[in-house]
Amino acid sequence: MQAVRDRAIAQAATPASGGDESAYMSVFLDERVVEMKKEAAHSDVSRIETEQRRFLNEGNLDLHLPLYWAVYGDDYQITG
Known about the structure:
Order of helices and strands: HHHEE
Number of helices: 3
Largest sheet: 2 strands, antiparallel
Number of domains: 1
CATH topology: Chitosanase, subunit A, domain 1
Strand content: 5-15%
Strand order of the largest sheet: 1-2
CATH superfamily: Chitosanase, subunit A, domain 1
Structural class: alpha+beta
Helix content: 40-55%
Distance between the termini: 31 Å
Radius of gyration: 14 Å
């Protein structure tokens, strides 16, 4: 994970260093996908693309409820 973080920091400032949280998280998720695809056992990155990136794109970084998502063909929700 340190390599993922290092590559992300090289592209976007972290929120702790004054960077935009959404921009940093987007780059971090991009780099996480790159890392996961290096191993066949982790090559399915749909949980990042359909779950984690969804909350990021919706601007719900604090994960305010309700949460709805689908991953691996199953629907999930957390309503309270």
